[in-house]
């Protein structure tokens, strides 16, 4: 599957995961949106990928590499091009795992939250 299609799916999956994680926080809807957005922005996803790289399988590394090298037509708005490409790679990995291995997906997503909780 096309890396950017996987990233499109992965963006939704990651956002839902983050929203579900923080839904029980005692905050207003606006505050909840700002909190979740801070974890779903390109710089945060780029950092999440850095944290995950040592535990990725070769197949997962291939997904990340292909997505990083995919030609994108969007310019990053609030991040550097490097962060944007890494975030796209993270999203593609999430999309790939959503389609192929939900147990591994849960492991990966939970790993991104370890230092946050």
Ordered list of secondary-structure elements with their pairings:
Layout: H1 3-22, H2 29-40, H3 42-52, H4 58-68, H5 81-100, H6 102-113
Tell the overall outline: globular
Mean pLDDT: 91
Element-level helix/strand string: HHHHHH
Structural class: mainly alpha
Helix content: over 70%
**Beginning-to-end CA distance, first to last residue:** 34 Å
Total count of helical runs of at least 4 residues: 6
Q: Count the beta strands.
A: 0
- Strand-residue proportion: under 5%
Question: Are there runs of 5+ residues with pLDDT below 50, and where?
Answer: none
Q: State the major sheet.
A: none
Radius of gyration: 14 Å
Tell me about this structure.
The protein has 117 residues and is an all-alpha fold. Helices cover 74% and strands 0% of the residues. The protein is built from 6 helices and no strands. Helix 1 crosses helix 5 (81-100) and helix 5 packs antiparallel against helix 6 (102-113).
List keywords for this structure.
single chain, 117 residues, mainly alpha, 6 helices, globular, cytoplasm, EC 3.1.26.-, RNase_III_sf
Write a compact overview of the structure shown.
This protein is mostly helical. The protein is 74% helix and 0% strand. The longest helix has 20 residues, at 3-22.
